[in-house]
Amino acid sequence: MSFPDRAQRKTCWDSRDRYWECLDSHNIRDSSRIPKECTEYRMIFEKSCPPKWVTHFDRKRDYDLFKDKMQKEGFEPIKES
Q1: What three-state secondary structure class fits 9?
Q2: Where does the pLDDT of residue 17 fall: very low under 50, low under 70, confident under 90, or very high at 90 and above?
Q3: What is the pLDDT of residues 46-67, one digit of tens each?
Q4: pTM, full prediction
Q5: For the chain, is the Cβ count within 10 Å smaller at the N or the C terminus?
Q6: How far is CA 81 from CA 74, 78, in A?
Q7: Rounded Cα gap, residues 73 and 3, in angstroms
Q8: Is-contact 35 9, C-beta < 8 A?
Q9: Rounded Cα gap, residues 66 and 7, in angstroms
Q10: What integer pLDDT is reported at residue 41 of this predicted model?
Q11: Exposure on the CB side of residue 40, measured as CA atoms within 13 A
Q12: Are the C-beta atoms of 30 and 59 separated by less than 8 Å?
């Protein structure tokens, strides 16, 4: 797939957003878990976006959720022995 034009990028981003909304509505915090209710959204997402973008967006969502959790809950530093 060549670099997507403006319309293709919008289609990709829209399908990503619908897929993420489905994951959020089912309280899925790990992108490797795909509930059966979101399978169709995932297929559309993968079909609408270049494979590298899908991988990037999956990692981005996981990182954003992790960052949000750290900001809300904090963290415990590793104790040095």
Answers
A1: helix
A2: very high
A3: 999 999 999 999 999 999 999 8
A4: 0.80
A5: C
A6: 22, 9
A7: 39
A8: no
A9: 31
A10: 96
A11: 1
A12: no
